[in-house]
Structure formats: structure tokens, C-alpha cells
Amino acid sequence: MSRYVSFRDFDWLLLVFVLIICGLGVMEIQSATQHTKFAGSHIKQIYWVLGGVGMMFLMSLINYQALLEQIHWFYIAGVGSLMAVLVFGQKYLGARRWIKMPGGNNHFQPSEWVKIILILAVAKYFADMRQRELSWSDFIKAGAIVGFPMLLVLAQPDLGTALTYVPIAIMGVFLGGLQWKQGLAVGLLAAVAVGAVFFTPRVHVLKSYQKQRLTSFLEPDADPQGSGYQVTQSLIAVGSGGLWGGKGSQTHGAFLPVPQTDFIFAAFAEEHGFVGALGVLLLYFIVLMRLTQNAQTAPDRAGTFVVMGVVAVLSFHILVNVGMVVGFMPVTGIPLPLMSYGGSSVLFMFLALGMVMNVRMRRFVN
Amino acid sequence: MFGRDEKVSAIRLTAAQYIILGIFLVLAYGLWRLQVMQSDYYSLAAEKNRIRNVPILAPRGKILDREGRTIVDNYPSFSALLLRDSSRDLVADADLIAQGLHLDPNEVRARIRRFASMPQYQPIFLKEDITPDELAFIDAHRNELPELDTIMAHRRLYPRNGFMAHLIGYVGEVTEDMLNQPQFELYGPGDMVGVSGVERQYNSVLMGKNGSRRALVNSHGREVGRLDETPAEPGKQLKLTIDIDLQIAAEQALEGKNGAIVAMDPRTGEVLAMVSRPTFDPNDFSVRISRDEWNKLVTDPDKPLLNKAIQAQLAPGSTFKIIMATAGWQEGIAQTLHVNCAGSAEFYGRRFGCWVKSGHGAVDIEKAIYQSCDVFFYTLAEKLGIDRIAKYATALGLGQKTGIDLPNEVSGVMPSEEWKIRNFKQKWFAGETISVGIGQGAVAITPVQLTRAIAAISMGGRMVVPHVVDPDGIPAGYVEVSHYTEVKNIPIEPSGWNLITDAMSRVLLPEGTAPSAHVPGIDIAGKTGSAQIVSLATRAKFKNSDDLAQNGWFVGFTPRRNPDIIVCVLFQGGEHGKLAARLATQVIKAFVDKQRRTPNKMVEKPKSGNVDMGALWTMPDGGGHQDKLESGRFAVALPKKPLVAATAAPGIH
Lengths: 366, 653
Fold this sequence. Notes:
The complex is a heterodimer. By secondary structure, chain A is mainly α. Chain A has one domain. Helices cover 67% and strands 3% of the residues of chain A. In chain A, strand 2 (95-100) and strand 3 form a beta hairpin. Chain A is globular and about 60 Å long. Residues 221-225 of chain A have low confidence and may be disordered. By secondary structure, chain B is an alpha+beta fold. Chain B folds into 3 domains: 54-239, Penicillin-binding protein 2a (Domain 2), CATH 3.90.1310.10; 244-597, Beta-lactamase (3-Layer(aba) Sandwich); 605-653, no CATH class. Chain B is 34% helix and 21% strand. Chain B contains 24 helices and 23 strands. In chain B, the strands form 8 sheets. In chain B, strands 2, 3, 4, 5 and 10 form a 5-stranded mixed beta sheet that branches. A 5-stranded antiparallel beta sheet of chain B has the order 12-11-21-20-19, with helices on both faces. In chain B, a hairpin with a 6-residue loop joins strand 20 and strand 21. In chain B, helix 3 packs across helix 4 and helix 10 (244-254) packs antiparallel against helix 23 (577-597). The interface between A and B is large, with 55 and 45 residues.
């Protein structure tokens, strides 16, 4: 089988677009962190990207079908690592999200690589399904596969990352043959659940800061110096960028919070204006369309599901992050993939892309 | 039927693509809305974020004495403040901060808590006017405590121990009420404004104009750059007419006592010294005075905040007899009035006593002045009547504000028939006139009024307006000062004021009322006064009580003709005018001593060239037997180098 695999079938075009986005990210990190204590972050980011590209090539060499055969072990390991975080994890800013790696000052965030495992697990589940239309029990099982690790991440607590698991399940059930009435029922249920969490004071599912973040999104001016501050400053940053970009005083005056991670798109939009920001969105759109094209040409159902899982996660990140920056979405602490500074996020994206390459390189295998 | 190789529904994949396209269109719309449609609004918001107008405070002008010596200056004062950089745990640092700044750590923590809800960029003020070692502490801990910062402001440095406090006044924060008034339009909240004294009267000259700086700041409020700067215009210097040397003498004379001293140049109205006691330390006001200290000042029965020189309204006592004598002379009564003083006399059915129980015997106007005979002036008052007394007293400025350039001067009272009807709806009783004759009754004047009136008499009727600031030194357009050089001429017959001032010069001689105040070699003319605060009957009830002691007065000038200086002393609780006279002569002596020390003006002024001088000399006549007196004028050539002024008599080392 493997003799048919060749890097000639590697999606070089996709890689080029991805690297352009990463390059813009590095540029903006450099610009946003100069004269701050984070100065030099862009160099680290370059290392992360280079490491990510390496990981991507490695990932593309392992046959995804072989991975899928062993997915239950990975799943168990992933859930185990999430539990380990809850027990042994480093507490930072009130949440246990990281495990300290032996040697060096590196931290590992298991919730990121669990995303990959979930993409594979969901793909495996739906690839093995034997009917065209989704039954309720399939629906619930698929939900449970994603739901259990999601609860563990919520317990850290990390609402943002937990939410990124949801699109994996949604994409799975949608492509797996979701029926209209199921979609409607789940949609209603979700609406009720969100309503209950928000408007019942006795339900403490969300921490108060989480609730505050969400409410301040609805009304940023209610508390302009507190929780709504970030939203307000982000809107000012983006808006003052205008059509062609501006001086970047919001970014460089440190009015924009964490401009190198969660708000990197706001920083970019301020410095490069509507034209620049729209260009970045276009690049992301090209990448996503290229990915869906790869999903269509996948050699089997499982391959399609794997690629579409990546598409789902990437789209969700973009929707939530850019949506937050332009004031459509609450502040959840979800980074913009490929652009935001951070090793875990970069490595995840390149591992995910590695899986996409993996599927693509085997598209002529029958 | 359905295997692993069955393809995923192409329709659903396409649907997913359209959903993604939809998401991107929404996001693109979001960008369009912010960056194109509302771009102007957000650009403005960004400007407001990063540009802050920082005021540059203008230092107030210095206050100088007549010789240019500094009385009030500014000093740079540092306030400690806490920047709330989110990176530091302020509560944890509170102990170290409190220790370094000599504060209570709990108070520091309480203040941090109180400010927790305020915007981050607003610093917390910890301590105003910190000491040099506290400033050193902040400098030394720049790294450990980066949140500690200082801000510099100019503060007023007033003379210590209340020296000249009433005259200078003090500054305080502008109040809400003041800000609503048009004359304070240049002020903003927190600005310092003159609250009393010269600081208030000449506030517009002293205050200067604040500048401003448009600074670029970051989210922590730290300046990262500046756009432009309008420099502050410092306040103008203010030159007073006060002579510090004389002021010191006056302050020393009144030290530990209660009352006021005014020293004035009777020719110009320039106030040379002005003291009011007890006093207060205006330095306490320049930072912030505690409630306790303030209450103590306000409730003190001796009223330390009152400038008694212009705000004490008291009966002038026998000093008023000079005004009586002037009135009597002008009306042609005093010249021929001879009274036999038997220690008391009866007027309108009531017995009025003289201060000398045994009586003065035969008294004319001259003796009545230097012996201060009450019966003579009772009689004169009866003959003049209240309205004629009031006419002259009012013409000499009694019962009216003098118009001195100090705030809150009071007018006092000069009673008349019309005054009584207006204020009490009662007819004037002729008996009241008798008390007025010796400066008792309803007459109430301020020391500065008395100074001005006696000065006018000593100058032959030339009445000036007292002022404490040199009008020539005031730049145009600030404060209206032209009227301070105006002169009013009160018609007084030369024979009258010659006689009156001659009589006054005998007050300090053995036959006068204040021989103990005599200073050998200085020709002082003056008049003592002792004024009752309450009636003699009430006084008898509370005998030996200090509170009810009489007020001593003295007004004196030197030399007797064309005086250079007039000094008025109010010695509250001083019992007799001769005690006040001793205080006045201390000041006069200081003045004369200084004049004699100062190099002669002729030597001082023309540094070279010829000086024209007149002289008398004798010349032997042609026969050689008799000297002939000649007179003429010389032109004397001055040496190129100025003459060395002798500071001590030759031969004394």
C-alpha cells in the first residue's frame, strides 16, 4: 500500500496558503509585542511553526487508517490525560489546564491533542456506521464520545476549549446523516440549556467570570473598565483601523489586551485596515475550501470525516475568534489558529493538517 | 448495500461549504461595519484613549518686600502616588510602602480597596508633600515597587511661625462655588487660589496661567510620548510696600500679645508693616489642615484668623481726641476754650469722670492733648454737637473702609444723628455725644482707619489711601490700582495742625501721658488711648479678669513735621495707652535706626558727575577786620568711585 504514497501528492498549495497565514501571524506578533515584556515572541512562534511543519510531515507518513484501527487506545489515553490534568495539573489563573513537562519551562495542554483524537474517533464511528440515516442511538453515542472529554475540560475549567469540541460532533452527525427532526430537536434542547444556564441563578455551571464575559459581550458599555473593557478596546482597535489601516495606537499603547494571542486579529485589523483583514479572511476561506475539496477526494468515508472534522474545528475557531474581535461573539479565550501566538495551538493545527495530508496522499489508494 | 467505501453525501459536503461561506460573509460584514461604516467613531475613540491633556501647573508669583527681598516663595513639593499596574499585588506591597512613607499599612490597604472600583488609569494619592527621606525611599525602590510614583507641584513656602500671616494670606483649593463665578473662569477643580490676604487680593497677578501638554499614554496611563505643549505662564512677582526690617520689629513688639500694629508712610499711604496677633501658620493651609487644627483656629476667642489691623472694630478711646481737637479748631471753638478740670463734670444731668480723679486744673487745648484731659473734650463735644464731630471724623475717613488693598476690610462706625435714626429708629440723645468726645460710646474704628486719619492730620490735611502693594509694580490690566495714589485734601488750618502736633510731641515728654515711651534723639509725636470694652459698671463686677481689661492704643509719627512714618498700635488688654506707646516707639526706633544706617541718598543716587549744593561761608572783607557772611551755590564734583558709607562711628571698632 505504502509504495503508492508519495510527497508528490502532498497538498503543497494548501501548505503555501497556511504558511502565508502563519507568516502574517508572526509579523503581527512582532509588531504587537515590540516594546513589551513579550518582545521576541515572534521568534519563538517561528520555531513553533517550523516544528509544526515537521510534525505535519511525520503525521502524514503514518497511515490514518492504521491510526483509526487503534483509535480506542488513543481515546482512552486522551481521556486519561485530561483526568491527569485535573489531578496533577498546574494551577494558573484559577484553572488547571497544563501539565508541566519534565525539563525546561514547557507546559503541555492535553485538551489540544484530545481534539485530534476526537476528530479521529468521530470519523471512525461514522465510517463504521451501516445505515444512511442517523438513528437516535447513534446520535447519542456520537454525542457521548465528544461529550465525556468535553465535561472533563469544562471541569478545568476551560469553557473555550470545551466548546471547540462541539463542532467536531456537529460536523460528524451532519455528514453522518442527521435527520431534520433530530437537528431541530437538538437545536431546541441546546437553546433551552443555554437559557437555563444563563437565567437560572442557582445553576453554577458557568463560573462568574465566564458569565460576566458572556454578558459583557451583550452590553460592552455597561462596565467599560472591567469585563467589557476587552470587547470595547477590540472594537475601537478594529474600527480605528479604517479602510487601509492606521497607526495601531490601540495595539501599541497596550489598550488592546493580549494582542499577540486571542486578539491578534484585532491588532492586525487595526494596523492593516479593512483591506488587510478581509485579505486574511480570504486566505482562511481558501484554506477551508481547499480542505473540503480534499475531503471530497478522500479515498474512503473515514478520510472524508477526518478532513471535515479539521474543517469544523478550524471554522469554529475562526468564527468564534473573529466574531469576538468584531463584537459578534463573547470573549471566550479561543485563539485564532495559525496566527495567534502559542505552541499548543500551532502544533495542533499542523498535526490536524498532517492528517489532512495523510488522507490526501492516499486518495488513489483503493 | 452500505459499506465503508460508500461516499459521504456530496450534497451535505457542499452544504457545509455554503455554511462556511455564510460564516465568512457574516464576519466580513462585521469588519465592514466597524472599519468602513463606523470608522470615524472608533478613530475618535482611539484618539481619546491615547491622548490625554496633562495640565502644566503655573507656579505662583513670588511676593517680595519693598527692597526686593523674598517673603513668599514656592518650593517643589512631591506627592507619593500609587499606579495601579495590574502586574503588581498592591495589597501585598502595602506593608513595605507604608513603612517607607511612614503611613499606617491598614490605611494604605483601605485606600487601595476604596479605589478598587475606580478606573485603572487613575492613580491613588498616598501622601502629599513627602519628606526628602520618603522621596529617597521611592527612588531607591524603583525596581521593587514600580507602582510607586511621585508627582511634583509647586507649593507656597510662607514665613514660619505666622510671620506676616494675615497680610500675606494663604492659598487653598478653589471651591465649587468659586468655579461658577466669572472671575475664576481660568480655574479648574483642584487648582490653588488665594483665599485671604494679598494672595487673594492680587490673585490674578500671582496666579499665572496653567499650560497643558497633550501626552500620548498607554492603557496604564503611563506617558509614552507627547504631541505638543503649551508652556505655563508663571505668575507675576508682587512687590509689597512692606519693609521686612520694620515688619520684624513690629512682629517682635507684639510677640505674645494680642492686638495689631500698622506702620505707614503718611506721605504715600505705603504700609511699611502690618501685624495682627495672635497669628497662625499659613504653611499648614498650603498642604491640608486637619479638622482639629482648623476648629481650634476658628473657635479661639482671640480670633487668630482675623487681621485685626483692618478687621477689629473697637472704640478708639483718647486717640479720638486728636480728631476732636481738629474739629474744634476748624470750628473756631478749641482756640479759646479753657476748662477747669476738677476730675469730673456734669453734662445733661449725668456726671462724667476724668481719668485723673483729682483733676487737671486749668486746661487749654494743648494741655488737654498731652495730658489727655477728658473733661476738656467732654466740654468740646458738647459745644460741637454730634453732627459736627461726625462731619470731621467722616471727612478723615473714620467709620468707612479705607480702601486698603486687602480683602474683607470692615468699615467700623462713626455715629451721627442720621446714623442712629437709620439703624435704631431712635433719636440721638445729647448725652451720647459726651462719650463720643473721648472716643467711647458708639464710635468703632479699625487700626488702619485711625492710622490714616492721624496721618492726614500730621500731613496738614493731605489724606492718602493705605496700600500694601507697590502700584507701579502691577502690570496693566490685572488689578485696578490707580486709586491707591489718589490724595484727598482735608482743609485744616496750619495753625491748628501745628499746635496739635506740637502738643502730641509732648505726650512722650515728662509732662505727657506716656513719658516712659520716650526715645532720646527721636522726635515722636503721638497720642495714647485706653478704651473700655464694657461699661465701668460691668467691669467692676468682673474685676481682675483679663478678658475685660481695657484696650491700649497709641498712634505716633516721626518727625513732628513732614513725618516719614506713622505707627498705630492696638494692644488688646493692654490697660493703658502708655504700654501701647512703648510698642510703637520700638517700631519707630527700628525705622529711624535703619534710616540712619542707610547710606545717604545723595551718595547713593548720582554715581558720578556734579552735585549742586547750597552753602554758607564767611569771607574776610577787604579791611581784614570783619568777616562777611556769604552765601551761594557750589557744583561739587563727585569722585568716580562711590563713597564708602560708614557703618560705625569712626574710632569705634
